[in-house]
């Protein structure tokens, strides 16, 4: 009888620890990229950008287009760096960046 109580107590304790640690992690990232657009996107078609969460396995930039689409691109690409610099320079003064 004592062995059964001990086993049940250990199982309940393990479940409590698992539930607590899972709850502390919080929800996962909203969007991660696993495939990337390799073709350069014209500046006129991009309205904004954001960086993916650090919790994603690969860092990426999400480009928001005028057509309402989101494209995943690699932040290391030269054309992406130029596009980000262009969008940052075009930003309205006082506007908070979404990075």
TrEMBL record:
Name the keywords, alphabetized: Cytokine, Secreted, Signal
Protein name according to UniProt: Chemokine interleukin-8-like domain-containing protein
**UniProt feature coiled coil, ranges:** none
Q: Which GO terms describe its biological process?
A: immune response
Q: Which family does it belong to?
A: Belongs to the intercrine beta (chemokine CC) family.
Tell me which residues make up the Chemokine interleukin-8-like domain. Answer: 29-87
InterPro entries membership: Chemokine_b/g/d, Chemokine_IL8-like_dom, Interleukin_8-like_sf
Quick one: signal sequence residues? 1-23
Q: Which SMART domains match?
A: SCY (SM00199)
Q: Which Gene Ontology molecular function entries are recorded, alphabetically? A: chemokine activity
Q: Which GO terms describe its cellular component?
A: extracellular space
Q: Where is this protein found?
A: Secreted
**Whose protein is this, by species?**
Amphilophus citrinellus (Midas cichlid)
Q: Name one Pfam family in it.
A: IL8
């Amino acid at each position: 009888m004592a062995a059964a109580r001990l086993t049940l107590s250990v199982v309940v304790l393990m479940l409590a620890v698992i539930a607590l640690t899972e709850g502390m992690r919080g929800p996962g990232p909203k969007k991660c990229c696993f495939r990337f657009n390799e073709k350069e996107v014209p500046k006129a078609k991009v309205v904004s950008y954001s960086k993916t969460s650090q919790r994603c396995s690969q860092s990426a930039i999400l480009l928001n287009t005028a057509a309402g689409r989101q494209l995943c691109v690699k932040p290391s690409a030269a054309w992406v760096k130029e596009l980000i610099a262009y969008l940052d320079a075009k930003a309205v003064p006082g506007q908070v960046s979404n990075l």
